[in-house]
């Protein structure tokens, strides 16, 4: 049975004190995670060590970084390597988020290098993919997402793929006033799983965790998570409010 995950992406939000309080409030909620269910928290880089300390005694709650660099080490002022993340006990790293692609021009080829470095350091990538509005309007979203998968992941062998989590982001439905329906989410998740099956076989595809990254919130999480190919969510804004995030986690 594939793992179910709800991941909190704090992005560039919260001070350390507020981040600590948020985690303590989530922990105080007494989440009861079923077997195979996991919560992942992705705070900004400066808070990783502290948040790791707060969650270390809570089984089923893991730590993620929001990014890493595409080189092993060197004169890259301001960047953070996968080896650095491994050294402080990071479990996951979010790679290819739509904001990284849009604001920092990250390419599929660069992301392939990041994927390799994360895996080499025992860190599981949460690889983000998804289409912008003009691609959805042109109804070419499947081709667009296929290219992202092929150019960033398909150099991996089947054994490495087992350590990958995919997050689908319908970029056109985030902050635009448009809404992606549960059926639209399911359709793309099913397409991604079928694409993986074509390359790696049915068993590998069925074992792959695919998260939904399209503004999930307490009011729609249950419907989204009920979809056959939606294995949880990569949560943005709602992850900054303890009550909202815990409600989403409890929607499984």
Automatic annotation (TrEMBL):
A Pfam family hit: TIM
Gene Ontology biological-process annotations: gluconeogenesis; glyceraldehyde-3-phosphate biosynthetic process; glycerol catabolic process; glycolytic process
Location within or outside the cell: Cytoplasm
Enzymatic reactions: D-glyceraldehyde 3-phosphate = dihydroxyacetone phosphate
GO cellular component: cytosol
GO molecular function ontology, one term from the record: triose-phosphate isomerase activity
Primary residence: cytoplasm
Functional pathway: Carbohydrate biosynthesis; gluconeogenesis; Carbohydrate degradation; glycolysis; D-glyceraldehyde 3-phosphate from glycerone phosphate: step 1/1
Active site: 97 (electrophile), 169 (proton acceptor)
Domain of life: Bacteria
E.C. number: 5.3.1.1
Binding of substrate, residues: 9-11, 175, 215, 236-237
Keywords, in A-Z order: Cytoplasm, Gluconeogenesis, Glycolysis, Isomerase
InterPro entries according to UniProt: Aldolase_TIM (IPR013785), TIM_sf (IPR035990), TrioseP_Isoase_bac/euk (IPR022896), Triosephosphate_isomerase (IPR000652), Triosephosphate_isomerase_AS (IPR020861)
Family as reported in the entry's similarity comment: Belongs to the triosephosphate isomerase family.
Subunit description: Homodimer.
Task performed by this protein: Involved in the gluconeogenesis. Catalyzes stereospecifically the conversion of dihydroxyacetone phosphate (DHAP) to D-glyceraldehyde-3-phosphate (G3P).
PANTHER family named in the record: TRIOSEPHOSPHATE ISOMERASE (PTHR21139:SF42)
Protein name as catalogued: Triosephosphate isomerase
Gene that encodes it: tpiA
